[in-house]
Design a protein that fits this description.
two-stranded antiparallel ribbon; DNA-binding transcription factor activity; Arc Repressor Mutant, subunit A; 2 domains; mainly alpha; GntR family transcriptional regulator; single chain; WH-like_DNA-bd_sf; DNA binding; transcription regulation
Length: 129
């Protein structure tokens, strides 16, 4: 389920956060689906439970999951809803990257192909786009 790179410059908790986001965004983890418990995931990945807990706290603060005391952590329904602040930030980053790509010779049709490929790989995105 998780490929952690212990040699990566990214902290392990950040790798977990990124992987969970990817699973949620690509709809592999569905709304209200329960995540593995901290203890079970720590045993499976042979890493410190505090690392898992830190990743779960980060995901919760970003709105991807929610916790129910005594029950565990679940994929948040609002993770499927637009997060306007995060989207604005991503739009800014995308704009900067697209300008750089066009400067380096990528044309509009190549960019469109990349957008289509990203949409296909992410499961289609929002229904009304």
């Amino acid at each position: 389920m998780f490929d952690l790179d212990l040699r990566s410059r990214d902290p392990i908790y950040q790798q977990l956060v990124d992987k969970f986001k990817e699973l949620i965004i690509s709809n592999i983890l569905k709304q209200d689906e329960q995540l593995p418990s901290v203890r079970v995931l720590a045993q499976q990945l042979t890493i410190n439970p505090n690392t898992i807990q830190k990743a779960y706290r980060e995901l919760e603060s970003q709105g991807y999951i929610y916790s129910v005391k005594g029950k565990g952590s679940f994929v948040d329904a609002t993770a499927q809803v637009e997060n306007r602040a995060a989207l604005k930030e991503i739009e800014g980053e995308l704009m900067k990257l697209m300008k750089e790509a066009m400067f380096l010779g990528l044309d509009k049709s190549d960019l469109k192909k990349l957008v289509d490929q990203a949409k296909e790989e992410s499961g289609g995105g929002i229904a009304n786009d």
